[in-house]
Write a structure and sequence with these properties.
- The chain is an alpha+beta fold and 81 residues long.
- The chain has one domain.
- The chain has a three-stranded antiparallel beta sheet with strand order 3-5-4. A two-stranded antiparallel ribbon has the order 1-2.
- The protein is globular, with a radius of gyration of 14 Å.
Length: 81
């Protein structure tokens, strides 16, 4: 009997925190959400590297970072210009 694996989009849908923050699965998705004005939560243990990747590789720096009220999460918010 063959087991079929669902595609990644079925396995890993974008998560949303109860308080309205998006929880994107990739840094590219995070950048896109920030560009469209959506604040996002990122796991705190990867927040520093995520900021480095956004600013360095993606050349995107129109965001601010602060600690979330949700334990273990950090909020990335778009800077409105």
């Amino acid at each position: 009997m063959e087991s079929k694996k669902p595609d990644k989009k079925q396995q890993l849908p974008s998560l949303h925190a109860d308080d309205g923050y998006a929880r994107p699965l990739t840094r590219g998705e995070l950048r896109d959400k920030l560009k469209s004005g959506v604040p996002c939560e990122v796991a705190s243990h990867v927040a520093e590297m995520t900021a480095i990747v956004l600013e360095g590789w993606f050349e995107y720096s129109d965001f601010s970072v602060r600690k979330s009220e949700n334990f273990g999460w950090t909020i990335f918010e778009p800077i409105k210009k």
